[in-house]
Amino acid sequence: FENPLVRAVVSPIQPLSRKSCETFSALHFPSPAGATGATIDLVATLARQGKVKVEEFKRQVKIPEPKSGDSVPVTLFGIHPLDAGDYTFTVTLSSPDTDEFAATRVRFEVPPAPKSAAFIRGTLLARVVSEGVRIRTDQEEQPGLDDILDDNESFEPLVVHHTSAADSLLAAWTACAGTKRVPEGAVVTRRVTTEDGGSVHELEPIPFEPEGENMLCQVHLDRVAGDTLVPGEYLFEVAVSSSSTGDNLAVQSVPLRVD
Question: Could you tell me the pTM of the whole model?
Answer without folding.
Answer: 0.83
